[in-house]
Amino acid sequence: MTRLRGMLVGLRVVAAIAAALGLGSILILATGADPLKAYTALVHEALFDYWGLSNTIVKTSPILLAALAVIVPLRAGVYNIGGEGQIYMGGLFGTLAALHLPTLPSMIAIPAALLCAMMGGALWASIAGLLKAWRGINEVIVTLLMNYIAIYVVSFAVSGPMIASGAPYPYSDEIPEQFRLPLLMPQTDAHIGVIFGVAAAVVIAFVFARTATGLSLDIVGKSPTAARYAGLNVKAHIVASMASGGMLAGLAGGIEVLGLKYRLFHLFSPGYGFDGVVAAFIANANPAFAPLSALFLGALKSGASVMQRAAGVEGTVVDAIVGLVVILVAASLAWKGDLLVGLFDGFRLKPVPSDQPNPTEPKQ
What we know:
The chain is built from 16 helices and no strands.
């Protein structure tokens, strides 16, 4: 009974997603479309069609890395909402490296540019980490505001110093061929960036499960006082966790430029940093589940146009379904299963009182 209760509590996120899709069906019906037809088209196109799957993979890659950028600091008790800005800084640093590094073989050029992108994201996130650790400034507000600063910095760069000659729109020069990521699926846009994301998820899951570094981050996140008593440097852990998160988001920005755009564009990220927050919530801050949650969001986003084309569902309805997923998953994570515990306790058999006197009691 206890195992069944634990399993049901553990599946609350899946139940929340199912409920969100059920409520989404009502919205689809309200628009006059067929929910079953819409969801069937979504699943088929996003996961079982060659071109649709490639589109899903393209969107999954940055969402996964952005989700990990939230999960790593969160395990240390720090909320990183600045993945979007860190993606932009990663794209900026990666593009600068690709445009200004000398001619190199791809085996050296791509890692060098991606390393610069990771440095850009890490430096940007470290600002919020330092303010949090040494001045106690709320990291949620800082990272949220720094998103907009990063977007404007990139907009300034591609509108002025980095703008391509004769460009009708703010974008940089095209990066050289040797800096471009290889394709994962021929004749599509799917590049190998998703492999970086999955590999990072595996490594981070191992670090948290098997290493002293992961244990110390968990201790800092759960009880800073206990961490200080144990001799851990809480401030250093906060800054390091934020820098690590920024490094992952910066990698997402670099991959987006080197693997898909081949230029740095104004507003080149359609909100992948915020999608990463959603994916991290769905994964319950567990890096092992992040690839699945990112794939779910990637499929939902890549299938939005399909639902519109196949079943006449507006793209805004898909956005509303994503919002429902966020709300219900957040509500499910706040629920600790107390109601379920009470329900199971109600069914538990109680001992039958005995009419026989207790031999240990003294006789009257």
